[in-house]
Amino acid sequence: xxxxxxxxxxxxxxxxxxxxxxxxxxxxxxxxxxxxxxxxxxxxxxxxxxxxxxxxxxxxxxxxxxxxxxxxxxxxxxxxxxxxxxxxxxxxxxxxxxxxxxxxxx
Length: 106
What we know:
Layout: H1 31-34, H2 41-51, H3 61-66, H4 72-84, E1 90-94, E2 100-105
Antiparallel strand pairs: 1-2
C-alpha cells in the first residue's frame, strides 16, 4: 500500500452513521443537556444511555450496573447528579408495610 509508514496506512472505512440510518437506531439529545457543565461526564453519559431507550422501557439499578464498568457508588452518584439538576425525577414505592421498594425514574 503506498504511503504506509511504520506499518500504518490505508483508508478509513466507517460503519453506518445516524445520517445513514435516519429513523432507526439513533438518539437525538438536547445539546444543552450534554453540554451542561454542572454535570460530570459520567452523568451526561448515563443521561444519554437512559434517553436511548424507548418511552416506558424498564431500567433498574441492577441493569445499569450490568451495562457498564462503573460500580454501585459511581452509578448512584451519577443518578443523584441527574436528579439534583432536574434531568431525572425519582419516586420510591412503598409496600403494604411501609417499607421503601423499587425506585421509579422519570
